[in-house]
Amino acid sequence: MTKIIFPKSLKKGDKIAVISPAGAVEASQLEKGIKMIKSKGYEPILGEHLYTKFSNGYNYAGTEKERLKDLNWALNDNEISSVWASRGGYGCQHLIQELSLKNFAKNPKWYIGYSDNTVIQSYLLKKGFASIHGQTIKTSSFGVTEESYELIFDILKGKTPQYTIASHQLNKKGSIKGELVGGNLALIYALLGTIYSFDFKDKILFIEDIGENFYALDRMIMSLELAGVFTKISGLIIGGMTNMGDEKDNKQYEESFDEFAYKLISDRISKYQFPVVFGFPNGHIKDNRPLIIGSQVKVKIEDKVKIEF
Questions:
Q1: Is-contact 179 4, C-beta < 8 A?
Q2: In degrees rounded to 5, what are phi and psi of residue 301?
Q3: pLDDT in tens, 224-239
Q4: Taking the CB of the first residue and of the last residue of the chain, which one, N or C, has fewer CB atoms within 10 A?
Q5: Neighbouring-strand partners of residue 292
Q6: In the chain, what is the straight-line distance between the N-terminal and C-terminal CA atoms, in Å?
Q7: How far apart are CA 239 and CA 259, in angstroms?
Q8: How far is CA 109 from CA 30, 95, 105, 122, 124, in A?
Q9: Which pLDDT band holds residue 1 (cuts at 50, 70, 90)?
């Protein structure tokens, strides 16, 4: 088993790089998050192409070359202590073939993000480095919970999270311990069969998603089954499933944990015996509590669910 490396804790005055590896952002969308970094005693360092825009079938934060330049700078500059993605969107897959960890490997740092950033976090874990699956900077302007960010800053200071949540009727009870992998389901699905895909053997898999038609969600879950993922993992945690299906027809469209999406997943995995947690507060939702990808976690699923890192 590969030993996963955890970055060192940050101290006051350390520099946090803010970059846009995927979709374009406006400066106004990041103001609150950047002020928050400053208020915690850290120095935000903005990537050269943080606010660059490049339209090519999608509004990217710069060309592939420009986004890659910022990402490689942030990961490898020895003066940077952590890297925080401004947002997700689409575009991280463009970068991983030319990612460099030359200096990063000597001075690992926390990479923070979710959504499309799952690609980069999968890459880092393949190289043996843990990362934080949590809020991006942009979402600070969307009315997300303060705890979503406070818990990230706790991790940066060296404090690991412990969660106790209500049980869900679809849960499968049990106790498991293992390495946590995963993130956004669409990106886990997109990496299947590539050298950048997560290693699922004996792992606890986390999935979340947003804005998918129900048939597309089913297709992704089926692909995981056909790839043998569900015969390899030791447990499954399902987070936010929101804005699913057709807004006109789905009364739960704005809900964080769509019941039909959950039932669809539950039906697909019913023949497997691993423990399952539904309703974990992480994903494209306002209460997005951070998870540490690559960490060993203990999960106890009874009348309540306890997750310890």
A1: yes
A2: -110, 105
A3: 999 999 999 999 999 9
A4: N
A5: 132
A6: 18
A7: 12
A8: 21, 18, 9, 15, 11
A9: low
